[in-house]
Amino acid sequence: MTAATHSPLFPHDPQDPHEGRTAGYGQIVEPPRDADAVLEGLDPEQREVATALHGPVCVLAGAGTGKTRAITHRIAYGVRAGILQPGSVLAVTFTNRAAGEMRGRLRQLGAGGVQARTFHSAALRQLQFFWPKVVGGEMPRLLERKVQLVAEAAARCRVRLDRNELRDVTGEIEWAKVTQTVPADYPAAVAKSLRDAPRDAAEIGQIYGMYEQLKRDRSVIDFEDVLLLTVGILQDRHDIADQIRRQYQHFVVDEYQDVSPLQQRLLELWLGDRESLCVVGDASQTIYSFTGATPDHLLNFRTRHPGATVVKLVRDYRSTPQVVHLANRLLHQASGRAAEHRLELISQREAGPEPVYTEYADEPAEAETTARRIRDLIAAGVPAGEIAVLYRINAQSEVYEQALADVGVAYQLRGAERFFERKEVREAGAALRSAARFGGNDAVLDDVVELPSQVRAVLSTSGWTSEPPTGSGAVRDRWESLAALVRLAEDFVRAKPSATLSDLVAELDERAAAQHAPTVQGVTLASLHSAKGLEWDAVFLVGLTEGMMPITYAKTDEQVEEERRLLYVGVTRARLHLSLSWALSRSPGGRASRRPSRFLNGLRPGSAVPGSRRAVAARGGSFERSDAGGIGGGAAGVGARRKRRGPVLCRVCGKTLTEAGEMKLSRCEDCPSDMDEGLYERLRDWRAVQAKRLGQPDYCVFTDKTLMAIAEAVPGNEAELTGIAGVIRRKLDRFGADVLAICAGEEVASGAQDV
């Protein structure tokens, strides 16, 4: 393997975990024997990328098409063929993980001397190297976390910010700096960009200006300053710019659709008047515009470089034809400039199961059935770590955390804290606990009797309001968490009308305790944004309703189209199994007022193509309205083509059933029942004892509909009992013996086993 040659602009970093290692794969891999061997195993388009070593090159690479493989083999081929000197190449990407992966692959290919860095890492090392020459003395200290200084700036401006507002204002300052917007111009820039600022724009501009003043006073810089200062030096000092250009003669930029205006300016200064540049990106995966990222530089590349070589990578090695077909159809409905440059992917994998579209009566049913399907996949041999549940906002995680815990499936949260471990949830729990203990002496609860109203009153002191805040960010996330607690209180009192605030606190403690499992490798729960760059064998896209996908605050056409691209990113994370689902109401028995996401129109079987009145045929997926079955045909059908499920029919009159409760019973509510009334009453009495012993509402043991179904079926063994909707494994283990004994006419002791 070629020894690394360290540039003076990038001195050896002994703390870099990738230095001196073989890509972190745990074993030494022999590099290809020569340049031609580097090209072995590449498809025709990847080979075209690898051999296009001169002039500007633009690689339009769709999801799963092997773009990292193509560009690393391109660099390695140039190095091994003697066309590129390792020390003259700078490969730039956006995350340390991606840069580390690129360095590892290059070492495996015998091109270990190539620098692979993030924009910030490359700029910081150059700034450190040239600062003594340009300014003299030591470079200002780098501010690792700017939040504290932003807080001080706000205080000096007599603006009070809570923790979440502080994070959002800090994000606004970062956006302003990467778009090269000075404090005085911030309000106008926000108005022009139609950006939802978390506070008054003039107020944020004032805080921004004070923040910059404090940095100057204390001789500190932040990460955005690293880019700004490097740009300033290269613009003002042509001798230094020439030195860098002599050192680096060839540039590769990955994820080019995510470049900000400031990063693009730095890249232009690195290049000078040369065109030895290769960029790689996909406009259809632009989902970070709120951070200043824009696909315009990718889309305008051929205009700026008329003689550029353009290569499209469309062979998808990640996903099955069924998943790829859905992804392509999703983008066919897109509009706007990015949509004009969409790539039509072609799957290179064998056929797999069709995507499953499922409509649920309510969110708990959606979460519970999703959890059961995941359990079935794991039982069929799919590793838990190869399964993901993806949602639009982090506040949606709680119901899936609970559902997976109920069926005994381990999970891990990516990009978010567990619901009951979030700071605002813990603070809200403490406030509710205090109010429950001293409610009679709490002025907040004066003249407030109803439990949900009490909860709203208490949480209003923690930031909950009847109307959600505008825009996205931490303030919105905090509100969503508190709103979830308000909804939980509403559901709780609906099931237990006599419940008190103390009862609700006990319920919250019970729920929190059930989720305090040690952190283990398990099913991934993640927002769609945090799933970018990852992939799994099975992906469940949940909560796909209007107002959530697209999100309510996506107002402009471009904001809506970015939401569509976000869903596209979610679809293309799946290798084999893909499930898309939505719920018509928030809670059981609620009004079915929700609609499936507009993005699914023309995709889900039976839906109308946008702009037409004709419903499409049931092709390219199966559509369910029940909560039964498993993705890809359940445990027995994993890896096979999914059989389409027909409508659920009443076993008495044959009518199609649409309500979740009726589907549990397999009959219409008003059809004659052969239920054993005596058995039903005995089951209800037993349930009341269990619920009291556990300190939970009755429905947490079994719902009325489940008890009715048991009383109608009168199961004689575990197999028959588990065939009843609502009897999950956890409840079978906990209550199954009692239920079967009651069905057999036996007496059951009131002191059932502890749980």
UniProtKB/TrEMBL annotation:
* Pfam families for this protein: HRDC, UvrD-helicase, UvrD_C
The cofactors named for this UniProt entry are: Mg(2+)
Q: Which reaction does it catalyse?
A: Couples ATP hydrolysis with the unwinding of duplex DNA by translocating in the 3'-5' direction; ATP + H2O = ADP + phosphate + H(+)
Instruction: Give the Gene3D superfamilies listed for this entry.
Output: 1.10.10.160, HRDC domain, P-loop containing nucleotide triphosphate hydrolases, PCRA, domain 4
List ligand-binding residues for ATP: A61, G62, A63, G64, T65, G66, K67, T68
Q: Where is the HRDC domain?
A: 673-753
Record's protein name: ATP-dependent DNA helicase UvrD2
| Protein species of origin | Streptomyces liangshanensis
